[in-house]
Structure formats: C-alpha cells, structure tokens
Amino acid sequence: MDGQDEFVKQMEFRKTEILWTLVTLSIPTVLEEVLATLLQYVDTAMVGRLGEQATAAVSVTTTITWLVNSVAGAVGVGVLTMIAQAVGRKDGEMIRRVSRQALLLVVGCAAVTGGLSVVLAPFIPVWMGAEKAVRGPASAYFLIVSLPMLFRNAATVLGAALRATRDTKTPMLINMASNLCNVALNYILIYKVGMGVVGAASASAVSYTLAGILMFVSYRRNALLRWEWGKRGGASFVLVDWPVLQKCAQISVPVLGTGLASCLGYVVFAGLVSGMGTTIFAAHSIAVTAETIFYIPGYGLRTATSTMVGISLGEGNQKKFETVGMLSVFLTVGMMCVSGLVLYFTAYPLMRLFTPSGPVAALGAQMLKMVAFSEPFFGLMIVLEGIYYGLGRTKYAFVTETSSMWGIRILFSFLCVRVWELDLRAVWYCMIADNVCKSVLFVLPVLTRRGREAVTRQGN
Question: Of 134, 157, 283, 419, which is least surrounded by CB within 10 A?
Fold first, then answer.
C-alpha cells in the first residue's frame, strides 16, 4: 500500500506541475490577446471619430487583411509544432534546423504576400464594393500597412518559434509595446498632425516594424533557437532544408486552408445578415465585436496547450500528453463558463459602449445572451484544436472546421434568411450550432484511450 500511495502522490505532483506550467505559459498569451483586443477597440474608436468614410476606408479591406495574415499564421503553427516536438525530444540540431528555415519562410512569405498586396492595393477596395469616395483612402491605407510585410510576418512566425521554447513572456511584452506604440502614434498622426486615414495607416506600419525588429532580436538571443550565420566554406542560412520545409508544409497548408475557408465563410455569413436591414446588421456586427473579448483568452490558452502537447509528443510520453490534454480542457472550459456568465449579465451595457442606438443595443444584447450559453462549447473547440495542432494533425482540424462552417453555419443561415425568412435569432442559432458541432467532432477521436493512442501515433 505504501508503494501505491507513493505512486498516487507522484501522479498528483506531476498533474500539479503540468497545471502550473500550463497556467504560467498561458497567462502571458492570454494577457497579450486581451490587451491587443482592447487596444484594437481603442484604435477603431479613434479612427471612427474621423467620420463614416474614414471608418469605411479602414474596414473595407479588413477581410483581405485577415487572408494575408492567415499565411504567416499557418506557417507559425507549423514552426511551433515542429520546434515544440523537437524540444520534447531534446533534439537541439532539429530545433536549429527549423529555426533557420523559419527565417527563410518569413522572407519568402513576405515577398509573395507583400508583393501581391502592394500590386493589388488599388483594386481591392473596388472588388470589395467600396463607394468611389472611399476607394482612394482605402487603397492608400492597405498599401501603407502592406509595406512592412516582412516585419509583420517576422512578428508572427518568430513569435511562434519563441513560444515553442516555452517563452511566452517575450512575445507578450513585444506585442504590448507595439500596440501601445500604435495607439500613441494614432493620437499624434491623426489628431495632432491631421493626417487622417494615412496617419492611422502609418501608425500601424511603424508598430508592425517595431514588433518585427524586436521579435527578430529576441529570436536571435534565444539559446535554443540560435544558429550560426555562416560556416567555413560559405554555408549560410539561405540554404534550403527541404525535409524541414516539407514537414512544415504538411502541417501549415491545412491550417492555411482552414483560415481561407473560414474567412470566406465569414464574408458570406456577413453578406447574408447585411441583407436583413441596417439595424439588424449593425446589431449583429457590434455583437460579434463585443463577444470577441470573452473568447480571446481561450486562444491564448490554445497556444500554451499546443506547445505542451508538442513537447509531450516529442518526449514520447503518452501519459503526459493525456494529462496535458485533460487539464487544458478543464482549464479552458472552466474559464469560458465564467466568461459566459459575465457576458450574459453585461450584454446590454456592453452593447451600449459601442452604439448610442437603443434598438441596436437591445437586439445585440439578445444575441449576446443567447451565445453566452455556448461559450463553454466554444472553449472546448478552441482547446481541442490546439491539441490537434500540437500533434501536427492539422488535416483533421481543416476537415472539421471547413465542413462545419459551410455545412452548418452557412447552409442553414442561407435557408433561414433567404428561404424561411426568419429573424436574426435563427442566424445566431446557426452560429451556435456550428461551434457545438465542431467541439463534438474534435472530441470524438479522443474519448477513449485507444483513440488517444491512435491520435498521437498519427500525429507523428
């Protein structure tokens, strides 16, 4: 019995240790996401004071910006997964190989996405249906924020590399400094200098550049990620490591596909709602924005979960993987239960922060109270997606995300709006059903021990 008691104590200690690691890793990323969202609210409000045309000029290219950012985001997932698994195996050589290719990917992706963005900047507002008076400022805004694409990609991809080594504090501090810089420059360039939309774009460009430079410096100072610029014989970082790039592509391409399918789905979804009337669309748009702050912390926890899962997979420690998964699920879902309660009781005051219109605020508050009950399911979906990313099983995540988005949210929203002519409540029920379906599909493969073992084997 003494031996059994000792084993139980050791297991309890390991769970406590893993839980503490998850918490300490996730707190910086959660704070980073929350502060970035709050500052984005401030940024939007500052531009909004310039008038409707300025707001439209900044927002009309938002969806395209999401698409562009999804490329670096997908590469970041691949880099984080590979480095985290190499950290678990204590494979220093592989960490450095992936680290070297990460910088190469930053440059390559920036050349493609940045080049296309600059060339297409005059045409994107036209394609997005912007009014003629808005097209010029919108093109200028998109062009200016696209110029520092190298630094934007560096902040995303190299930040993911740092997080994979369990350093989540440095990216948090860098992004916090960048966001504060953006707000300060907005105030100076928009209001004091009077540059308007161009000033807002310039402030964003400078903050992107600052974040990219600081992230690169931190990446080069990280002991695990550091590699030599050159060797005798002329070898340098520009040498392409095809096996590493191939493995990274296997992980990243499905993530990119998920991002593209989701962004396109959000465009179609918003288009369906926009046809229901100005008040309804305003209530819907503001409610979606207001809800963001309540689920953003879940994405911070997802990053920590992906890192810990990747490390446990690299160690070949099935028990640790299961413990990490279980604790991260409980932690995320518990947090989302609390955020759901807060959202429910603060729905109307929150809407009033974003709009002076009573009818818009009342309708949006109804939607927020509905979605508050689904926050735990959304949290479950987020953390399970993080587990699959950490395992490198991004293809399953792509199939789940895409099929649910288009097979449930878009299809049934179309039927509710165009065929059955139902109200906004029905559309939000479709959105809630989409989130619940994703969480169920993600959880099914890991319900049994045999399923969990199969998932980790396929993750390799």
Answer: 419
Q: Encoding tokens for residue 341?
A: 């309660």
CA-CA distance, 216 to 221, in Å (whole number)?
A: 9
The low-confidence residues of the chain, meaning pLDDT below 50, are: 1, 3-11, 13, 232-235, 237, 460
Q: Which two tokens stand for residue 114?
A: 């940045």
The amino acid at residue 267 is: V
Contact present, 360 and 282 (Cβ < 8 Å): yes
SS3 350: helix
* Gap between the Cα atoms of 371 and 362, Å rounded: 15
Structure tokens at 74: 């997908």
Residue 253 and residue 245: Cα distance in Å, rounded? 11
pTM over 0.90: no
Tokens of 148: 């520092």
Coil, helix or strand at residue 49? coil
* pLDDT computed for residue 140 by the predictor: 94
CA distance 397 to 261: 12
Residue 374 is classified by DSSP as T
Please state, in angstroms and rounded to a whole number, the distance separating the CA atoms of residues 183 and 429.
36
What does DSSP assign to residue 447?
Answer: S
Question: For residue 15, how many other CB atoms are within 10 A of its CB?
Answer: 15
b/e code 162-178 from CB counts within 10 Å (16+ = b): bbbbbbbbbbbebbbeb
Bridge partner residues of 230 (DSSP) = 236
Domain boundaries, the chain: 32-240, 254-460
As given in the structure block, the two tokens for residue 366 are: 């109804």
pLDDT of residue 116: 96
CA 18 and chain centroid, separation: 24
Encoded tokens for 382:
């987020």
